[in-house]
Amino acid sequence: MSSPNAHTTTPRDRFADRSAVVTGGASGIGLATARRLLAEGAHVLIGDYNTEAAEAAVARLESEGFRGRVTWRRVDVAEEVDVEALMEAGQALTGRLDVVFNNAGIGGAIGPIVETDVAHWDATFAVLTRGVFLGVKHAARRMIGTGGGVIVNTASIAGVAGGVLPTPYSAAKAAVISFTRNAANELAEHRIRVNAVCPGVIFTPLMHNGREDAAEAVVRQIQPWPDRGEPEHVADAVAFLASDEAAFITGEALAVDGGYLANGLLRVHPLPGAKAKADYAGITYGLTGRPREVRRLD
Ligand SMILES: NC(=O)c1ccc[n+]([C@@H]2O[C@H](COP(=O)([O-])OP(=O)(O)OC[C@H]3O[C@@H](n4cnc5c(N)ncnc54)[C@H](O)[C@@H]3O)[C@@H](O)[C@H]2O)c1
């Protein structure tokens, strides 16, 4: 018998014959969410920057029984033409665009504020914030024409509390939360719900950077809930927000964080890259395959 509150999911059919676009769906939270939506009947189009990871993800999902309902397209979510084409292709899956999960992300600029290059600040916002704006803009254009839809954006607890992750990342995620609320307000009359998830520390390549043990040790000290955060925890929250069960929920930013925020604001840098905060400056592009540009500070 499993312990109380162990993570379980019961497959249902909440998304039967619905179309869904998932950005950043080649890995981590996006991949787990694509799988969850597929398991509940959706047709899923993944948009991702990393060709190798996306091809592997689709092959894996096909081998899990979803062949014929999952495809992918290479996009940079910071580029408007890419996002517009992605949403068009998402609508072409079934004739309607029902669900869009704007989730692609990178760690972005690192280092002290006084060492942060404008170009790195802008590149961080281009992916994390402009990417969400473009996703909402081009999803909504299509949803307005077909009677409505659901959008979920990935923010972060870093957008709620300080001290969690690098400053540009946190500011960009705070902007996602604000943008989500305003978009929900503006798009309600078109029957488009817009919500955000704020993941806590979720064990994905972006978070542990290949150092799972180090990350687990720090998380154990600061996160109240005893289990570590997995992409599936967030996927379930996204699926709920995207489903008709959340029909009266819009403009919400839902923390999925094992109580991390409930533990208060901490002057602790929890992730394995903590040292980089003081000793290095530059930018990292996560799983995209783009090389990091990091310099050591004297
Ligand atoms: N893992 C965590 O602890 C955590 C916590 C809070 C928020 N988040 C957010 O969750 C989201 C997913 O992160 P993850 O942890 O699953 O990371 P991940 O690195 O496993 O997956 C992110 C995916 O986004 C893709 N991507 C990055 N830049 C892109 C771009 N410009 N265009 C298209 N695709 C791009 C990557 O190729 C990758 O497949 C991100 O927005 C991240 O900021 C993660």
Kindly describe this structure.
- By secondary structure, the protein is an alpha/beta fold.
- The chain has one domain (19-296): Rossmann fold (3-Layer(aba) Sandwich).
- It is built from nine helices and ten strands.
- It has helices spanning 28-39, 51-66, 80-94, 118-145, 167-187, 205-208, 212-222, 231-242, 274-279; strands spanning 19-23, 43-48, 70-74, 99-102, 108-110, 149-154, 192-199, 253-256, 280-284, 293-296.
- The strands form two sheets. Strands 3-2-1-4-6-7-8 form a seven-stranded parallel β-sheet, with helices on both faces. Strands 5-9-10 form a three-stranded antiparallel β-sheet.
- Strand 1 (19-23), helix 1 and strand 2 form a beta-alpha-beta unit.
- Helix 1 (28-39) crosses helix 8 (231-242).
- The chain starts with 18 loop residues before the first strand and ends with a strand.
- The model has no long low-confidence stretch (mean pLDDT 92).
- The structure holds nicotinamide-adenine-dinucleotide.
- Nicotinamide-adenine-dinucleotide is lined by residues 23-24, 26-30, 48-50, 53, 75-78, 103-106, 127, 154, 156, 199, 201-202, 204-207, 286-288.
Defining traits:
3-stranded antiparallel β-sheet, 298 residues, single chain, 7-stranded parallel β-sheet, alpha/beta, binds nicotinamide-adenine-dinucleotide, 42% helix, 10 strands, Rossmann fold
Topology (elements, then pairings):
Blueprint (H helix, E strand, L loop, with lengths): L18 E5 L4 H12 L3 E6 L2 H16 L3 E5 L5 H15 L4 E4 L5 E3 L7 H28 L3 E6 L12 H21 L4 E8 L5 H4 L3 H11 L8 H12 L10 E4 L17 H6 E5 L8 E4 L2
Parallel strand pairs: 1-2, 1-4, 2-3, 4-6, 6-7, 7-8
Antiparallel strand pairs: 5-9, 9-10
Helix pairs in contact: 1-8, 3-4, 4-5
The structure holds nicotinamide-adenine-dinucleotide (NAD).
The site of nicotinamide-adenine-dinucleotide has 32 residues, from helix 1 and helix 6.
